[in-house]
Every structure is written in structure tokens, then in C-alpha cells.
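Methods — Computational structure assignment.
A single polypeptide chain was analysed. Its primary sequence is given first, followed by the predicted tertiary structure written as C-alpha cells.
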Amino acid sequence: MKSRRTLLVRTGHGSAAASAVPGLPPAPSDPPDLPPAAAPAGPPVVPPMPVDPPAVPAPSRPDAAAPAPVIEPLFTSAPGLNWAVPEGSAAPAPVTAAPPPAPEHRAVDELPPTARDLELIRTSLAVVEPVADRATAHFYALLFLGHPEVRALFPAAMDVQRDRLFRALLAAARGAGDPQALRAYLDALGCAHRRYGTLTGHYGPVGECLVAALARYAGSRWTAETELAWRRVYRLVSSIMAEAAERDARTSPPWWQGEVVAHERRTPDVAVLTVRPDQAYPYRAGQYTSLETPWWPRVWRHFSFASAPRPDGLLTFHVKAVQAGWVSNALVHRAAPGDVLRLGPAAGGMTLDPADGADLLLVGGGTGIAPLRALVEEAVEHGAADRSVQVFYGARRAEELYALDGLRELARRHAGLSVCPVLSGPGSGTAEAAAAGLRPGQLPEAVARFGPWAGRTAYLAGPPAMVRRTSGVLLRSGVPQARIRHDLAAR
């Protein structure tokens, strides 16, 4: 039987060693044999930024003839520098590795999952899904009681985190039959976990507690065969995630720090933030990142880049404060120039395909206009001059079309760009709205009225209901599914 010890290799903060992915041993009766140094002393602290982060290539622009200017960090004098680490704090010490088991003692849970395993996984998840809230709460209780050293990796409030766990399990179970899709999903998940400080040695305890929680809530569907299936699948999942984290650690830090250099309130609940990263930050127009504020440690939320990569390296975000939105409310109502945020790596596939010269249809509602604004910049300022770009930009009230003036200015400079603003709430259909060029109605219906859009590539961003309805409108008008791009499933 494989030793219960786990190999932990530190190759930079938040990295994981691909050659040492732990297996999932039978749940032990005693806590894992971790040395005292593995548990950080004192209250949880935000993991410090690496002292010497690896070099990251500067963002490139298609027409850039000269290198982007060097961005010198300002953090030594920033008045809002709020990520200082308490004196004397240190990262956990690595766990001593146990020798690998001999080939003849290879456990059955180390074998690849079979088709029968995948069937058992889906069946047991279907049983647990109605009580997912209790199952995930039990899982975290087991994890934090048996392995208190990992509690500092999680936010203080666990309500959102519980939901994410079960969504991740469902995605892994549904994608297990498609190795390529599963690997892409888990690669991104493994890299994203680096920002929390996740290390390879954490996967073993997580797996133990996961199996124990599932066994309790799967009822009669939980058998020895089901447990073996979960062990095999979890070994596969943890291996892929740890390998992805290790690859990512060779070229990228687990997070960037960014100083807020401008904060503009566009409406009472929408702000445009300009952020200066501490080192070159690579991304593409249409992508998004995750942001963490100093007021809610370890709580990360996704926000899209609102501009294409700039020569000065600055990043722009449109943020709307939503009800019960901890991060969004902090960014809109509390953040100010000088505050320092943390940024995860860029993610998302809603980017322009250089090989696709088709005309574009961009549909954005509310702050969903942010990634589309970045795509417009890339398409009309750095793309083919004869490419037609049609933008539909919707909101309930005229004052909520805060980005309209900027889009119209771009349209004045580029003949191929057209902007159609749409109002759905009070004031729509009035003479004043018509005089301002504002069309009445819902965005999906407006897109349908101005169609057909066959032959175009569509990019959709905004409220999920709007994106789904617009996608249906486009499918019915002859736009193939492969030409309708959005990031709903990725977030």
C-alpha cells in the first residue's frame, strides 16, 4: 500500500511539483504526519508576494513598432500600500518526502479510471446534488478540523466557496469522458489555485475529506466500487491540476500586485478603475482576470479588461457594485488611488482569431461592454481596415450607457464601426431618447430587428439571461454556434 506521506516541493510561492502528485490513500484514523512547521503560527495572513518573481513577457500589440516603456514600481511610496506582511511571518516549511512505493505494491487506486468508474461517479453525484450544501459543509468541517493548516488558504466566509466546490465536481464528472476538455478545464483550475497559495501537498488531505463527505451523503449508492472510482478520478484530477500549476510557475508569478492610479465614478454604482501592475502583465483583448482587495482577503472575483493592451502597461476595469458583492462594492465605494490590489493571471477565450477575417457583431449589456470595448480597439485600430464591426450596447436608463461617448468617438474615427445604443427601461421610446439616437427595447430583440447576421462572428457579454437570449436569436437567424463567443461557462 502506498505510503500516506505526501511530497511537497516549493518552486516558488503557490507552485506545485508535477513529478510529485500525491495519490489518494485510504482515509487515516489519525491526522497526516506533518511536521509542526507546516502549520503557520498566529492568525491567517495574506501570502506574501514572491521576492524574485519570474520574468513575464511584456504584452504585445499587433502593430507595435517599438517596445513598451518600462513600468517602474511605485509601491515604495504608494500612500495606500496595504499588503505589507507582518514582520516575522513566513511561508510553511516543505514536508519531507517519503520514498515512492515499489512497482509491485502499486495500489489499485493508481490505475486510470474506467468507463464503469465514470458511471459510478455520475450516479453518486446525482444522489449528492440535492444535499450538496450539507455535503460540502461537512467536507470543509472535516478538512479544517483535521488539517487546520489549510484554513488560512480560504476566505473567512465560505458560502460562495461551498458552491464552487460542487460546481467543480460536476464539471469534472461531466468532462471525464472527454479527456481533452477535462484537461483544459483542470489546467486552468490548477493554475488559478496558485493565487490561493495551494501546494501539491494540499491535494492529499483534500481528497481524504472529499471521499469521507461523499461516503456520508451518497447513502446506499456508496459502495467499495464507488469509493475506488472516486479515488481513481481524484488522482487523475489532482495530477492534472498539479502539473499545470508547476508549468505555470516556471513563467508566471501566482499573482501580480497592482496600484490603483485612477478611480472614476461613472454612475452611483459603476466605477472605472485604472491599475498599474508591478511588472509586465500579459493578456489579450476580450479576456478577464480575478481581483482581490485588501479588505476581503482570499476573496477573488472576475472582471474583464476594458481596453486592449497599452504601451504604458496600464489596465482598465469597469466595475458595477452589485447587491451583496463584497469585492465589487469595495472597488466602487472604497478603493482610491494609491490602494494596492492583487491580480490573478488573464483567462478566457473570448478573443479575436487572427485567421478569422469575418465581420464582427458585438452585443454588450451594462458593464458587459468592457471586454467588447477592448475587442473594438483591437479590431478597428490594430486589425483590418475594411472589417465591419457592429456594436449593440444596452442598458435600462440613458445614464447607464456610461461608455457610449467613448464608443461613438471611436466610430467617428473608423468608418467600419457602427454603434447602436438600446434602452429597455424608463425613458425608452421618448422623443428625447430618439433624438439622442437611443433605440427602445431589449437587446436580443434589437439584434433580431437589425439582422440577419449570417457570416458574422458574434461576441456577447453582460447579464447571463441576456447572453443566452441573444445567442438563441443569432442561432435562429443562421449564425452557427461556433461563431457565437461568450465566457459564461468559464466564469
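Note: The chain has three domains: 1-40+102-254, 256-343, 360-485.
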